[in-house]
């Protein structure tokens, strides 16, 4: 399989990105022995080179932190620069049917300061919403371009409480298990 790995970490005053780098490298090391791998970084890129990487890929993996309940600004800028009309999507009679990346799958891996208990509970901060609810606009952007989730019922991996109470080994184990179950099967 041809896999594009996108490091979506953007420099931030409150974070050195160590955990995101570790998770990114864990995924890369887990897939590169049996697959062709290319790497992208949102801090340094040329849009046309990135377009060609996406067109090449069977699977795109994104690793990024959640900043203020959204993707980092530089990741949003990257997507705006790279997801070009007539390469990723085009016109269609029915809204949302113009995606051109129909053979390409995706998976996202996200880190959150929010603890896991803050989700899926109407009495907690996210008012009963889950991670997929929060990331829904991003999923829609991928769907609009024709991408499909690698695992339809699991569009993202999410790691919680990464500032106050990180469990790094558990996060690494989860990525390795995901690779075993969903990519190296």
UniProtKB/TrEMBL annotation:
SUPFAM superfamilies (alphabetical): Flavoproteins (SSF52218)
Keywords (A to Z) from UniProt: FAD, Flavoprotein
Residue intervals of the Flavodoxin-like fold domain: 1-177
Recorded coiled-coil stretches: none
Pfam entry (one): Flavodoxin_2
Presence of the UniProt keyword Flavoprotein in the record: yes
InterPro entries listed in its UniProt record: Flavodoxin_fold, Flavoprotein-like_sf, NADPH-QR_MdaB
Transmembrane regions: none
The keyword Ribonucleoprotein is assigned to this record: no
Cofactor field: FAD
Domain of life of the native organism: Bacteria
Sequence similarity: Belongs to the oxidoreductase MdaB family.
Protein name (Swiss-Prot/TrEMBL): Flavodoxin-like fold domain-containing protein
